[in-house]
Amino acid sequence: MADMEAPIPLEGGEMHDIASYVSRNKTLSTEASEAGRPVLDESQPTRMVRSAEHLNIAQKTQVEGHKATSNVRVEHIVKIFTGDEDDFIEVTPEQVERVKTMHESIESGVNFSFNYNTLLLVASVVAGLGLVSNSSTSVIASMLVSPIMGPVVGLAYGTTINDWNLVRLSLRNECISLLVCIIIGVIIGAITGATELSDDWITQEMYGRATWTNFFVALPIAFFSGLGVAVSILDKQTASLVGVAISASLLPPAVNAGVLWVFYAYIKTGVIYKDDSLPWDKLTAGGVISLLLTLANIVLIWLASMFMFRMKEVLPIEKSVFWTDLGVARKIYKHRALLEVVEKKDTTDEKNDVQSTE
Q1: CA 18, 21, 25 angle in degrees (round to 5)?
Q2: What is the domain partition of the chain in residue ranges?
Q3: Which DSSP string corresponds to 64-115?
């Protein structure tokens, strides 16, 4: 009798190991679907994604996506703010493969790569030059090029599915990216501060990101931008994402902080002469406000994206299958997902069969 393949734990942090297992299950899944029976039934061996004491198989998620099934009711709204039941669900190889694809897509925007580093450098330089020259066009262009929305999306997605490794990676890379923006702002401020450009400082673009009034006005903008980010990412709405990138404005305030701090240092050391009657000491506080603006935007976009992820996942509305796959991904990372096991004949038995035939 053929020996059953040893269970292979489907760990949340080992998404890259799934591909080979999925390919071995496709034939079984296809035959089951054509026969009109469940992919996983009592006659087939099963393995658990994680160890479990009892099983409670939930209804299988449709592959094609979901159409609106009913009107949104109060219980649906309540479910947005409540956690999932701690039960087990059956997952198919196709679902696992989609989760892997979605996970890799999000993670690609988080990791430092040649493209990410290049875009970060380009966006920071363009933003810095736009700030010191009072060019709103350059500042807007830097928002479109900026890659630092990627780690923010990683924070929201990782928190939603309980992938804490992704959350830590996203948080670390976002902090490093902001530090790079500040350093480039310092460099640009130091170079341009010794030129005639500094005669017109503080520019309107610099000043507009260094006041408490604009800080508080930007908070609701950041929250609603976060809602747009979540929809744009999973629904592949690239045009919408462009508009969100402009409204969120994460990178220019961080660069502005570095420019303002260098500007203040130049005034104090006499490199730049300005009228002493003006409150130039407030430049330091302005730099802090500018940096706080970026940090507040990040936190609000993080929270708003989580809210949108959850809302589209649980509400009975028309949506792509990737929204329901959020629940599958969360079950995997919470150790509550089950995947069928395929019988595989031992290699030794196969060799013996060949020898006996010969």
Answers
A1: 130
A2: 1-358
A3: S-B---S---HHHHHHHTSPPPS--EE--HHHHHHHHHHHHHHHHTTS--HH
Q: State the maximum Cα–Cα separation within the chain, in Å, rounded to a whole number.
A: 102
Query: Quick check: helix, strand or coil at residue 48?
Result: strand
For the packed helices 212-234 and 282-314, what is the interaxial angle rounded to 10 degrees?
Answer: 30
Mean pLDDT highest for which of 142-146, 180-184, 234-238?
180-184
d(Cα 313, Cα 53) in Å, to the nearest integer?
28
Distance CA(326)–CA(49), nearest Å, equals 17
Please state whether the predicted TM-score (pTM) of the whole model is above 0.85.
Answer: no
Answer for the pair 92, 60: CB distance below 8 angstroms, yes or no.
yes
> Of 289, 256, 224, 249, which is closest to residue 149 (Cα–Cα)?
249
Q: Cβ–Cβ contacts within 10 Å for residue 55, how many?
A: 12
Q: How far apart are alpha carbons 330 and 99 in whole angstroms? A: 10
Does 248 have pLDDT greater than 90? no
Q: At what angle do helices 93-108 and 18-34 cross, to 10 degrees?
A: 140
C-alpha span between 203 and 134 (Å, rounded) = 6
Classify strands 89-90 and 337-340 as parallel, antiparallel or unpaired: parallel
**Residues facing 319 on adjacent strands:** 66
* Helical segments of 235-281, H only: 238-248, 251-269
Q: Enumerate helices (H) and strands (E) in the chain, giving the number of each.
A: 14, 3
Of the chain, the percentage scoring pLDDT greater than 70 comes to: 62
